[in-house]
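Moderator note: this is an archived Q&A kept for reference. The question asked for a predicted structure of one protein chain; the sequence and the answer are reproduced below.
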Amino acid sequence: MLGKRGISVRGWSSRARADRLRDAQLRSHSRHLIRRLTPQLPFSVTALCAELSEMRDRPIRLMEWDLPADGPFGVLVSRDHEDVIVYQAMTTKAHQAHIILHEVGHIIAFDLAGERPPAMVDRTCYSDRDERDAEIIASTIMSEAISMGRRVRSHGLDEPWRPSVYNSLVLTDGAV
């Protein structure tokens, strides 16, 4: 039996099929969300968080922090009145952008599910499924940003002096 895109799904368990369906739903939701937000180019995770905050009517605060090297690179703290993303200060700007997008992925997944995560004091880590969801959303947002950048460049609107594709799409003016 062939599933979408001609991929054989004959030997797949019902769990694997459910996971693939959830992944596809997360990607679709993320693409639609990015198009609804219409971020400015070059793409900035800071601007994305600001637009997402406004759309959700709930602030997302970004805090650069010198986190221990043997711990997490990013943490989402959902408080009563705001979401706080703490991200590693001692890494590259590109890595910081990915860390923030990953934590934004948790926010989007929770919003899509219609539930807030338990308070941080009750939660020390996410499930494997939650982590997978956040990575799928982060990579989809990044993919959309790259795609938007390519479309802009194809119409001659990009700034050719940017030193790299990744930096031109993710980081603006040296800020995350």
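Archived answer notes: Strands lie at 60-65, 74-78, 83-88.
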